[in-house]
Amino acid sequence: MKKNARIYVAGHTGLVGSAIVRALKKLSYQTILTRSHQELELTDQVAVAQFFESHKPEYVVLAAAKVGGIYANSHYPADFIAQNLNIQSNVIHQAKIHGVKRLLFLGSSCIYPRECSQPIKEEYLLSGSLEPTNRPYALAKIAGIEMCWAYNRQYGTQYLAAMPTNLYGPGDNYDLKSSHVIPALIRKMHEAKIANKEEVEIWGTGTPRREFLYSDDLAEACIFLLNLDESKYSALVSSETQAPLVNVGCGEDITIAELANVIASVVGFEGKINYNTAMPDGTPRKLLCVEKMQMLGWQRKTNLVDGLKIAYQEYMQYKQEKKTDCNILNEIS
């Protein structure tokens, strides 16, 4: 991508999108197109069409999505499938109409079957049943991959789907009802430490294994993919038999119990960790095979402990900013 290329990052205020914008700015890209949810409703077909007509992006990173953990997925399944289908359909279709050179669609490792050989290779897509707790979200993301592939085959577009593993980092969601495991545990551990609580409760048995990637590493991977030379990129998106899909992860996983202990150490919580086994575990294991990315020449830079330390400091800053905002509102009222 040329430094003055028009690059639209859909979902730039979220965990992934904000990391991509930071990375693009760090690399001196000059024309980064962004719109907040209030400025552009991506489920609105007409509004999306008008945006593409007005700004004509050359590259698109589709990081906008409705996301959440087990609680949110189980309580709002219709929202997860409907909103995500609308968002990606509108953006992908307008990208085709307006001649976008390359589009990168961000999915999730939950697209793969619940009972899957490990590590999970890209070709395992649609080889078994999905995890029930996030099935609507996963199906929407699978539809997005299929849409990219179908447009590539029918229209000769250059759309690629990147499937990141579990992510964490600056800009994460710390709402306990909708957050993923790392931000939820950081908040729980911190609040327990401040309140001098003797224990913290965690959903499930603690035995599921998960892989985690720092969000800035994913952002670097996204820009790396968009900048691949024509032959390598074409090999990813032009296959008639293989979906234009690439896993992005670190190739290592740990149990939720091990993760909880690491976060407790980083936060400084010294109490007991209790596991509520009446609550669901989710998929037993999700470890991505990242051989494809490694062969292309990319691998993660930030190890889990270092990433968690940065994430915790960011959470402390987030807490301070929230406190400041509350004080300002109190003074105004």
TrEMBL record:
Q: Where does substrate bind?
A: 188, 203, 210, 281
- Annotated NAD-dependent epimerase/dehydratase domain residues: 7-228
A GO molecular-function annotation: NADP+ binding
Q: Is the keyword Isomerase assigned to this protein?
A: yes
- Residue numbers annotated as active site: 137
Domain of life (superkingdom): Bacteria
Q: Name one Pfam family in it.
A: Epimerase
Return the EC number: 1.1.1.271
Alphabetical UniProt keywords: Isomerase, Multifunctional enzyme, NADP, Oxidoreductase
Its annotated pathway reads: Nucleotide-sugar biosynthesis; GDP-L-fucose biosynthesis via de novo pathway; GDP-L-fucose from GDP-alpha-D-mannose: step 2/2
Where on this chain does NADP(+) bind? 11-17, 106-109, 141, 164-167, 180
Per the record, what are the reactions this protein catalyses? GDP-beta-L-fucose + NADP(+) = GDP-4-dehydro-alpha-D-rhamnose + NADPH + H(+)
In chain numbering, where does the site feature Important for catalytic activity fall? 108, 110
Q: Name one GO biological process term.
A: 'de novo' GDP-L-fucose biosynthetic process
Q: Which residues form the signal peptide?
A: none
Supply the InterPro entries for this chain.
Answer: Epimerase_deHydtase, GDP_fucose/colitose_synth, NAD(P)-bd_dom_sf
The similarity comment for this entry is: Belongs to the NAD(P)-dependent epimerase/dehydratase family. Fucose synthase subfamily.
Function comment: Catalyzes the two-step NADP-dependent conversion of GDP-4-dehydro-6-deoxy-D-mannose to GDP-fucose, involving an epimerase and a reductase reaction.
The record, for PANTHER family, names: GDP-L-FUCOSE SYNTHASE
Q: What is this protein called?
A: GDP-L-fucose synthase
Q: Which organism is it from?
A: Candidatus Berkiella cookevillensis
Q: Which gene encodes it?
A: fcl
